[in-house]
Amino acid sequence: MPDSAPRSARRRGPALVVWLIAGVALALLVLPLLAILLAAPWPRIPALLVAPETLQALGLSVFTALISTALCLLLGIPLAVVLARSVVWHVAPRRLLRAAVTVPLVLPPVVGGLALLLLLGRNGVLGRFLAAAGITIPFTTGAVVIAQTFVAMPFLVFAVEGALRGADRRVELAAASLGASPLQVFRTVTIPLIAPGVAAGAVLCFARALGEFGATITFAGSYPGVTRTLPIASYLASQTDLNQSIALALVLLVVSVAVLLGLRDRWLPGVRG
Amino acid sequence: MSAVAAAPAALVVDVTARRGAFEVTAAFHVVAGRPLALVGPNGAGKTTVLNALAGHLAVERGSILLDGRDIVGLPPEARRIGVVFQDFLLFPHLTVADNVAYGIRMRGSRRAAARVAALPWLERFDLAALAERYPHELSGGQAQRVALARALAAEPEALLLDEPMASLDVEVRDEVRADLARHLRDFSGPTVLVTHSAADVEALASDVVVLERGAVTQRGTWTQVRKAPATPYVTRLAQSREQ
Question: What's the rounded Cα separation, in Å, for the pair A24 and A18?
């Protein structure tokens, strides 16, 4: 709407056609999830949920997604700081760097998994040296974590970079004037200021890691208890027992929604009201 | 500047600083107990000079002598210069008490000990009742008191104030200004305040340095400067009563 639009028109809100299209968009997002709930074999669900394969896949998924999120935080925050704050590098290299971080977002996960395999596989570019040293990565739980970290990292980096750009740097100058060393400033001012952004990034990161399928199955395979995460178990079950598949999908759905809701209220509204 | 020359200068400034293509050169000295107002039109370079003094901006050349030692090469955290920023820049994630205790904590005190050490400052600035509030719950005048208490609790050797009245509502300015003047009189070190308001100079400062387009155009006591304005800007400033 141009600025010249009369005030009354603005107060009336979006036009009917916009409402209709928004309704279609919402239906597209929500109806498939409703379909799962409607199709679920509810009488059999309790038994399916406590089945050993389900619990095993759930445990592995939550475990690996937590470790991947921790890795993303550990590696991603410094990368975000470099992206947002580097004064050494000129604009062009920084754009390249940002493009490199974006790659896993736009890359089909299967391609990412293949790329990881070609790098870290037994005959891979780096993998052959690791193999010579007795270290095998593909088709291990470690491979699951690497695949998840690969696809989830951009979510964290961009969330933290945005928070760093949004934070008022002059508050950091105020801290320095009060005698805080650069490290103290980072710990006592910068980190608390960007905490909501870090938390939001970590939640997205965890959700993405939890749902990871393509890169994981390509790079880590599907060994029960080792690399068979919930999404993979759900997909495999859909080939044989659709009810089992639905039950696993329900678990994934519940865990994802619980994580988003639980962390949103505590962390996302910002600093103390 | 005969009145000024009698007391030893605690802060002797002779710097050239650059902000983009704009270069500012300023030389002046500040006597403890005689707050100096750095006045000038917008864009004259007042804040640039202040940032150079605080160490937030590297100087091109020159020296800043604080009690005889040159601090020009020191990072901000080593300068022991307190700063009250125009919009106060309180830490939004800390309570009033923790804001005031921050400088004490950074010098190695534990958080609890720092809070105890900050108590007298809270009392002195009439902030005890607000100790557990967060900055977004404060009025402009209260936020200014917190900013000043926070700067002084770190026991700085000099104090800088950047447009301390600018972000306050006009209705409360007179009262807050009188309050600020009282607190500035209690501070024993050299004080520099940036302003473009004659009312601020009148109430808060003893000496004046006029900065225009990156250069000093006049200096002296406020009485001297007001009586004999050297430029059209100073004439207008001397004639303006309220702002």
Answer: 10
Rounded to a whole number of angstroms, the distance from the CA of A197 to the nearest CA of chain B is 14
Q: B53 at the A interface (CB within 8 A)?
A: no
Q: Is the pLDDT of residue A166 over 70?
A: yes
In chain A, the residue whose alpha carbon lies closest to the alpha carbon of B55 is A177
Query: If you measure CA to CA, which chain A residue comes closest to B111?
Result: A188
Q: CB–CB of A271 and B89 under 8 A?
A: no
The architecture CATH gives domain B2-88+157-239: 3-Layer(aba) Sandwich (3.40)
Report the topology of domain A52-267. MetI-like fold (1.10.3720)
Task: Tell me the pLDDT of chain B averaged across its residues.
Answer: 91
Q: Is A166 on the interface with B (CB under 8 A)?
A: no
Question: For chain B, which residues make up each domain, given as ranges?
Answer: 2-88+157-239
Q: How far is A173 from chain B (nearest CA, A)?
A: 7
In this complex, do B151 and A176 lie within 8 Å of one another by their Cβ atoms?
A: no
Q: Do B134 and A171 touch (CB under 8 A)?
A: no
In chain B, what are the helix, strand and coil shares in percent, each to the nearest 5? 40, 25, 35
Q: Please write the tens of the pLDDT for every residue from B141-177.
A: 999 999 999 999 999 999 999 999 988 888 889 989 9
